């Protein structure tokens, strides 16, 4: 953009801009006042329906997608406005119905995964991993005929576990239409894992991905950070909950259990219910009454039934003296915790 206000030669105030050469020329004396002006307008048109009478604000095309063949670039027949015979509309309709875009289903599924990630507030790495899993699952041929939304949800559930930010089937089902049920997502999730196992057994490809998926076991520590944040607990309480959850995790699954790794009563329980019970126990040991959270509030945040949390708390209760960090509470305070059968 030119900033010239007065001609330094003749003192004139009228100028002409030469767009081809990028020069600003004085209209009175012909002096080239400014040269090599940068044109900030669009260099080309996109020939879209909206780009008819107004300047096109888009300077580049859409982003490429490495998960699609050719980066997702394709040819589209546009619809012309000055077409009395309607040939352009007919060609566009035939092109759309003709199936010339074999990756149309992938694009639709990727859009659905992106929408679910936005509603669940998931980061881009999880979305990319879910899209990658969906593409690889469809290549196996085992997902043919299955509900696209259920398969996409199963891949998203698997991606969340792989990236260490798990979500429950209940949370994912809540952002899907009512016709997609929880059992459909769980069934697709099992089929996806089985499809990867079969692919490795037949071709030997994807063994590293399968190893990552199979070993991405869930444990209580994965849920503690999110739920303590939703409960608005301070960092010290979060740290105590995290350490207790790691201590309650089986050693072979990344826990810090000491001894010979004896199986505990809560090992068969859902990691979500164990995390909720640990948060309840840790908050009850807080010296400040404002940091204590009642069981009903934990039920609302975690979505776990009160009876389930009480059952997990009953299993954890005999070992709380070992699970609760020493810096958070002494054994005397732990012995004063509510008994498993007590009510708030």
UniProtKB/TrEMBL annotation:
One CC-aspect GO term = transcription preinitiation complex
Recite the UniProt keywords alphabetically: Metal-binding, Repeat, Transcription, Transcription regulation, Zinc, Zinc-finger
**A Gene Ontology biological process annotation?**
transcription preinitiation complex assembly
Biased composition of type Basic and acidic residues is found at 47-56
Task: Give the region (Disordered) as residue ranges.
Answer: 47-69
Would you identify the family this protein belongs to, as annotated? Belongs to the TFIIB family.
Question: Could you tell me what this protein is called?
Answer: Transcription initiation factor IIB
Q: Which organism is it from?
A: Chlamydomonas eustigma
């Amino acid at each position: 953009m030119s900033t010239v206000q007065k001609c330094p030669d003749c003192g004139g105030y009228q100028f002409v801009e030469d767009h081809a050469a990028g020069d600003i020329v004085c209209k009175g004396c012909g002096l080239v006042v400014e040269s090599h002006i940068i044109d900030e307008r669009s260099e080309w048109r996109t020939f879209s329906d909206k780009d008819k009478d107004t300047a096109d604000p888009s300077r580049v095309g859409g982003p490429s997608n490495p998960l699609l063949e050719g980066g997702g670039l394709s040819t589209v027949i546009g619809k012309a406005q000055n077409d009395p015979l309607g040939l352009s509309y007919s060609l566009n309709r035939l092109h759309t119905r003709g199936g010339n875009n074999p990756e149309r289903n992938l694009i639709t599924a990727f859009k659905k995964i992106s929408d679910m990630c936005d509603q669940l507030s998931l980061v881009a790495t999880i979305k990319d991993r879910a899209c990658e899993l969906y593409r690889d699952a469809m290549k196996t041929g085992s997902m043919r005929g299955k509900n696209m939304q259920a398969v996409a949800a199963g891949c998203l559930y698997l991606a969340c576990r792989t990236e260490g930010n798990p979500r429950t089937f209940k949370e994912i089902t809540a952002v899907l239409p009512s016709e997609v049920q929880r059992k459909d997502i769980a069934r697709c999730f099992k089929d996806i894992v089985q499809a990867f196992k079969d692919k490795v057994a037949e071709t030997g490809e994807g063994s590293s991905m399968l190893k990552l998926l199979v070993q991405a076991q869930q444990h209580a520590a994965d849920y503690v950070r999110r739920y303590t944040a939703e409960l608005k607990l301070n960092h010290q309480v979060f740290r105590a909950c995290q350490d207790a959850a790691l201590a309650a995790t089986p050693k072979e699954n990344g826990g810090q259990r000491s001894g010979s790794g004896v199986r505990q009563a809560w090992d068969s329980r859902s990691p979500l219910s164990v995390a909720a019970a640990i948060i309840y126990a840790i908050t009850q040991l807080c010296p400040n009454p404002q940091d204590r959270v009642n069981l009903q509030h934990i039920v609302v945040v975690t979505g776990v039934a009160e009876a389930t949390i009480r059952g997990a708390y009953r299993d954890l209760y005999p070992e709380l003296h070992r699970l609760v960090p020493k810096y958070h509470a002494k054994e005397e305070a732990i012995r004063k915790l509510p008994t498993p059968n007590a009510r708030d």
